């Protein structure tokens, strides 16, 4: 038993380290860096208040980024797109429903997709602060933000404090972000459960 335990304990701790690494991946670093960069830009260059994270907008941004992921970066995608010719999403109503949103509470918000190879942090921020998107970042009516990314695409959604752009469901106090994050939490819980079963098996040898 002691011999088996010595062999399996390193594997167990390796799994824990790998699990922590996987949880921190999947675009979270790029999104956090952009969030901080946008707020620093608004504060230093424009003397505007910081945007607060909006979980519902983040849910929608994640869905849109996932839909765009197979589109290549070109001179006419993302922040370089001519206004009025943005890529259209046929299933946009379904994305709204998934995030417990509708047209009435997203009307005044703005969706800004950008395509940057490998999501280089410096280029990502530039694509929002030194492009046509900067006009939106300069406005005082936007108070919240949701960011999602997938592969080379990153999507920023700006929200307002008004009912028409709050991205807050009128008939529910539950945030869409909680719904989206609960899926990730359930996956993590399953992995932790399996690891516990493994440890239980080891100690009963």
TrEMBL record:
Q: In which domain of life is the source organism classified?
A: Eukaryota
Note whether Signal occurs among the keywords.
yes
Residues forming the Uncharacterized GPI-anchored protein At5g19230-like domain are: 31-158
- Keywords from the named record: Signal
- Taxonomic lineage per UniProt? Eukaryota, Viridiplantae, Streptophyta, Embryophyta, Tracheophyta
Q: Name one Pfam family in it.
A: At5g19230
Q: Which organism is it from?
A: Rubus argutus
UniProt keyword Signal, yes or no: yes
N-terminal signal peptide = 1-27
- What PANTHER family does this protein map onto? OS07G0645000 PROTEIN (PTHR33976:SF8)
Q: What is this protein called?
A: Uncharacterized GPI-anchored protein At5g19230-like domain-containing protein
InterPro entries noted in UniProt: At5g19230-like, At5g19230_dom
